[in-house]
Every structure is written in structure tokens, then in C-alpha cells.
Design brief:
Chain A: Pathway: Cell wall biogenesis; peptidoglycan biosynthesis. The complex is a heterodimer. Chain A is built from 14 helices and 17 strands. Chain A is of the alpha/beta class. Chain B has one domain: 3-Layer(aba) Sandwich (Rossmann fold), CATH 3.40.50. Chain B has a 9-stranded mixed beta sheet. Chain B has a two-stranded antiparallel ribbon with strand order 5-6. Classes of the chains: A alpha/beta, B alpha/beta. The interface of A and B includes residues 145, 146, 192, 196 and 333 of A.
Chain lengths: ~400, ~230
């Protein structure tokens, strides 16, 4: 990319030094502190770093990190790609990602839902990818209808090409002010936040994937791309068998979105798909770790929709360990546990741990799911016989487990 | 064999953002443990509210669904008729405010409620988010309230209701009290699964509906309560 002005060069260099120090002293992966130092020195740094690149912003409640990884993998077919692969999804993380890879002609940035309008304004990204919106950590996150409304305002009048999941009514509404939208029928498992029309509040009638408001004209747009079980059908009607390494329906949906996004960059499915298949785990998600003859598959689930996705991946024949915390990044409110239907776990050995294990224990008791309470993750693992085990944990609980295995990738 | 206990969950499509389903599930479980058969109806906002329920539940929601919910309840009238014939009601957070004469909309504008409770609410200066603990009106015989609140509302209680509790930790109505009660109606800012943390309140609603109840083992409920109260009480 072209030369940065001197001040921006200096800010970017100092930020990278701070990031290196953060890593060297073991305080973190450095992607936030480095960006913060840079932004402090040059508030316009993000705009300058984003200029002259072809940029995609990726936002949703769930699947941001994984889809960012998939799109990044695909675009590498075209050239070098800068990306905030560690999930640091606010402007400091974006600055850090772009300044560590200044030469890359492409960038794919995961963006926190709230920050999307600001980051779109600053970066003038050419492509915006919107997947789903559902209830999430409501003690600190914005209400999702308000989020969608902010997306609408941010996209209105901009030239950005939006790739959006038309099976999610709220995402459809949030995307529909954009100048150009490619609609992807990516599916929607969690429907409890879309019974009412985002436009007028009337009831949404839903039949299979289709939906339409009973009272106004708001309805599901005709999709350009369709996820059909194991296959993706492209706008020409060609059918692509996904055969991903990443498991589950949610990842097939993420892949459908990634293929549509790749095409927006001029990359055809026959070139993008092999790249998507190379992704096996994403920052520890879906990875399998070993301990004392036990193979533990790590699944992250941060909110009710995420738990549905994790249950879909999880194998019914495996024992399962559930771990729930309520630290800041998890949301300090555990009410959402009551929105998850745990009855699907009936018949499997269930071990419960984490800082808020008593909240989960009562939840399972009321659902009639037998379980055993364990004081630590280590105890839960040791109590199960050698073999395959699934682990589902929310954010900080997941990071704590990942750290036990040397920050497994 | 008595007839079924009828639980009516009002507008889960509009007012159910914080695990509000938990209150339904807890009532069902605690009735089943006493051998009381339960029939639960989920009433979508496009459908009429049945009048023959025993316990009605209404939950929390964002500003816009709250306004829609209030309009539809007013137009429908089913809940008002059910309360008039003596049904019990637990109204939570946005649902609590709807039961009063007025509440604050998205921009703070006054929106009429349905007037089942002598309260009026408005939008406060800042959002109250966090754990809450409160001593319950001794008249109700329910132990210390524990739960989570997340709202910007300030609620003024009129002479027609009594405070549900006095806050020890947290904001509640904003004047040192939390929630209110009158007759067989309880309103509270404790959102979502308030009854999971307060089985005594669940049993109060059940007693109002079916009369005296045998005691049951409260193992997990009690352990969770003790842990949460210990985490916040001075």
C-alpha cells in the first residue's frame, strides 16, 4: 500500500512496539494495547491504514471470528490479507491488525456489532458482511433492534456492497438500506428474537425458511446464494458440496456467506472453496485437545443461539462437560441460561463446572436433565472414562480451559 | 384429582428477552413436585389473552416491544378481565411498568399503561444494571429477594399498592423500594428468571392460585440463593 504520512508511520510503529512488549511480558496477544497506543498518537490512524486496500467488515452476534477466518483464508488466493484473527474487534484491534500487515492489499476485519457504523464511516470499507442478530449479554450489549436500526442508518447512502443473511429478518432489515446487497439464505436456527416485524412490529408469518410480515410489505428477499444442507447453490445455480473440516450447520452457513463474499472480491467458488476447507479450528474453537487418554473437543457458546449451534455440533454419544462463568466479557447476568433448551442432553453423562455452576445446576434440574456438579474443569475431566468428550463453555470459561492446554489453536 | 393449574405466559414474542421463560418453567416444576397438573399457554401478541388462567406471567423487553405490548393488552382486555375474576399475576421489568398508569417510551415520552397497578413509571437518568437484594414486605412471608436488574425505569408507587420489598443492594423502583404488590399481583424489576432465585415468590403465586402447599426439597434453589446473597450482601 501507499506511504503513510510520517505521524501515522510513527504511531503505527510505536503501537507495534507496545504489542511486542505485551506479548514478551506475557500480558496478552498485544492486539488491543498496540492499537490503543497507535490511536492515541494518531486518531485518524484507522482511516489512513485502511485507505487503498480492499476491505471487508464482518459483523454478527455469532460466528464473527470464524467467518472472518474463512473469508481471510479464501482471499489469500488473491494476495496477502490483513485480519484481526484474535477477535479483538473494536477500533484498537483493527488498527493493530492493519499496522502489523501494512503491505497487504486486502483486509478482513471482524467488527463488534455496536462499532460497525463507526468503523464503516472511518474505513469506507467496500464490502460489509452481516450474518445474524440475537440476544446476547444484555447487561452490557445494546438492544438488537436498536443495533439493526444503527446499521440501517450507517449503510444508507454509502456505496458498500453488503453480503447479508436473508433468513434472519432483523439482519435483512438492518441491511436493506444499502445500495447493493447480495442475499444469502444461510439459515436461522434461533428464532426467538424474530417473531415480530422489525419494520412495523406486526407478526411475522414463517413457513420453512420463508418469512413475511402479516401487516406490512416487509418480507424475505429472494436469495442469490442458498445453503442447502451440505451444499451451497451459487447465483448461477451451480451446486457446491462444502466438505468443510469445521463441523456443524452454523459453519456451513458461515461458509456460504464466505463464498458469496469471496465472489464480491472477484474470487470464484472453485478457487475459494478449497481454501475454506483448509480451516480446521479458529482460536481454539472446534479444536481437540488430549489429556490422560481423553480427547476433548472444545466448543464455544456465548449466548442462547450459540448453544443451539454447539448442540448441533456435539455428538449425542459423547459425555459432555459444561462450563459457565459470568465475568465482564460473558455478561454478569446468567438469565440467558433459561433461554437455552438443555433437554437435548438427556441421556448423556453431563458434568457441570465453571464459576456459575450453581446457576447452570438449577437450570438443568428444572429441565429434568441429570448432571454431576464438579468444582473444577480438571475434576470434571478426571471423572469421565478415557475416550471422546465434548466441552461447551462460554467466553471466559472457554479461555480458561484453552489456557490449560497452552492456548490451544 | 384436582383440575389443572392454568399458567398463561403473555407475549413471549414481544416480552421475553432475559430468560423470562424461566419463571414459567419454575412454576411448572414446583407445581409438578406437589402433584398439581399444569396446563401452560403461550400467548403470542397477535392472539387474544385467554381469561380463564390461574397465574399470568409477563416479562421484560426493549422499548418498542414494550409499547406494542401495552397497546395490544389494552385493546385485548383479556388480562384485565382475568385479574378482575381473581387470577394471579407476576409482571416483570417492562411488563411491570406496563401494568401502571404510564411509563416512559424510547425518547422518554409518556406512554399509557393498562392501569392494573397504582404505579407510574418514567425514564431515569441512568441505567441500573446489576445484582439486587431486598427485604420482602413481611406480610407476604417470603425470604430476602435476590436477582438481577437491568433497566432505566423509575417507578412511583401510589396508595393503591404496597412496596414488594426494601432494597439492600440495587436500585429497584428508585426510592429505596423494589417492586410492588396488591391483591394477587406482584410487580418487580428483577428480570428474567426471578422465580428461580426466589422460589418463595413462586410458591406465593401458587398458593394464591391453589391454596396451601406442602413443603418440598429446595436443594439447588437454596444453594444458588445462598451463593448469590453471599456475593452481594455486606
Amino acid at each position: 500500500m501507499s506511504q503513510l504520512p510520517l505521524r501515522a508511520q510513527l504511531a503505527s510503529a510505536l503501537g507495534r512496539t507496545a504489542a511486542t512488549l505485551s506479548r514478551a511480558t506475557g500480558r496478552g496477544d498485544g492486539s488491543v494495547i498496540g492499537g490503543r497506543v497507535g490511536l492515541l498518537l494518531e486518531p485518524d490512524l484507522l482511516r489512513k491504514l485502511a485507505a487503498d486496500r480492499r476491505l471487508a467488515l464482518v459483523s454478527a452476534t455469532n460466528g464473527k471470528t470464524t467467518t472472518t477466518r474463512l473469508i481471510t483464508a479464501a482471499l489469500r488466493e488473491l494476495g496477502d490479507v490483513a485480519s484481526n484473527a484474535f477477535g479483538a474487534n473494536m477500533p484498537a484491534g483493527h488498527v493493530s491488525a492493519l499496522s502489523t500487515n501494512k503491505a497487504a492489499p486486502y483486509a478482513v476485519l471482524e467488527v463488534d456489532e455496536k462499532y460497525l457504523p463507526e468503523v464503516l464511516d472511518t474505513t469506507e470499507a467496500g464490502v460489509v458482511v452481516l450474518m445474524n442478530l440475537s440476544r446476547d449479554q444484555m447487561d452490557r450489549a445494546a438492544e438488537i433492534w436498536l443495533l439493526a436500526q444503527k446499521w440501517r442508518r450507517a449503510l444508507d447512502g454509502k456505496p458498500a456492497h453488503v453480503i447479508a443473511n436473508c433468513d434472519d429478518p432483523l439482519v435483512t432489515w438492518g441491511a436493506s438500506t444499502a445500495a447493493r446487497v447480495t442475499w444469502v439464505a444461510g439459515g436461522q436456527r434461533w428464532r426467538e428474537d424474530s417473531w415480530c416485524c422489525p419494520e412495523c412490529g406486526g407478526p411475522l408469518d414463517r413457513k420453512a425458511a420463508d418469512w413475511a410480515c402479516r401487516e406490512c410489505t416487509f418480507h424475505r428477499p429472494e436469495p442469490n446464494w442458498v445453503l442447502d444442507d451440505e451444499d451451497v447453490i451459487d447465483p448461477r445455480g451451480d451446486r457446491w458440496r462444502l466438505n468443510l473440516k469445521l463441523p456443524g450447520l452454523a459453519n456451513r452457513s458461515n461458509a456460504a456467506i464466505a463464498l458469496a463474499t469471496a465472489e464480491a472480491f472477484g474470487l470464484a467458488p472453485h478457487l475459494a472453496l478449497p481454501r475454506l476447507r483448509e480451516v480446521t479450528s479458529v482460536a481454539g474453537r472446534y479444536t481437540t485437545v488430549e489429556r490422560d487418554g481423553r480427547s476433548l473437543r472444545l466448543l464455544l457458546a456465548k449466548n442462547p443461539a450459540g448453544w443451539l449451534e454447539a448442540f448441533d455440533v456435539s455428538s449425542a454419544e459423547r459425555p459432555i462437560i459444561l462450563s459457565v462463568n459470568a465475568q465482564g466479557p460473558d455478561g454478569r447476568d446468567t438469565s440467558w441460561l433459561w433461554d437455552v433448551d438443555y433437554r437435548i442432553l438427556n441421556g448423556r453423562p453431563v458434568q457441570v463446572t465453571g464459576e456459575r455452576r450453581l446457576d447452570l445446576a438449577l437450570r438443568l434440574d428444572v429441565a429434568g436433565v441429570p448432571f454431576t456438579l464438579r468444582d473444577s474443569f480438571g475434576q470434571a475431566v478426571a471423572s469421565l472414562p478415557p475416550g471422546d468428550i465434548d466441552v461447551i463453555a462460554n467466553y471466559t470459561a472457554f479461555q480458561a480451559i484453552r489456557t490449560e492446554f497452552g492456548r490451544a489453536e | 384429582m384436582q383440575s389443572s393449574l392454568r399458567i398463561v405466559w403473555i407475549y413471549p414474542d414481544l416480552l421475553s428477552t432475559y430468560g423470562d421463560q424461566g419463571n414459567v418453567l419454575v412454576l411448572e416444576q414446583r407445581a409438578h413436585k406437589r402433584g398439581i397438573p399444569v396446563e401452560t399457554v403461550h400467548v403470542r401478541s397477535s392472539d387474544p389473552v385467554p381469561e380463564q388462567g390461574d397465574i399470568y406471567l409477563i416479562g421484560g423487553g426493549e422499548d418498542r416491544p414494550q409499547i406494542l405490548g401495552a397497546e395490544r393488552l389494552r385493546r385485548d382486555g383479556g388480562l384485565q378481565r382475568a385479574i378482575a375474576r381473581g387470577a394471579a399475576l407476576l409482571a416483570v421489568c417492562a411488563g411491570y411498568q406496563i401494568m401502571g398508569s404510564v411509563f416512559g417510551g424510547e425518547e422518554g415520552q409518556p406512554v399509557p399503561g393498562i392501569g392494573l397497578l397504582d404505579i407510574s413509571s418514567s425514564r431515569g437518568e441512568r441505567r441500573s444494571v446489576g445484582e439486587l437484594a431486598a427485604d420482602v414486605d413481611p406480610e407476604l412471608g417470603v425470604p430476602t429477594l435476590t436477582g438481577f436488574e437491568n433497566h432505566m425505569g423509575v417507578t412511583h408507587l401510589g396508595p393503591g399498592v404496597r412496596p414488594l420489598s426494601k432494597t439492600i443492594v440495587g436500585t429497584g423502583n428508585g426510592d429505596g423500594t423494589e417492586g410492588c404488590h396488591t391483591g394477587k399481583i406482584v410487580g418487580t424489576y428483577l428480570h428474567g428468571p426471578a422465580l428461580a432465585r426466589n422460589p418463595g415468590l413462586a410458591d406465593l403465586l401458587l398458593r394464591w392460585a391453589v391454596g396451601p402447599l406442602p413443603a418440598i426439597e429446595d436443594g439447588w434453589y437454596e444453594r444458588l440463593r445462598q451463593e448469590r446473597l453471599a456475593a452481594v450482601l455486606p
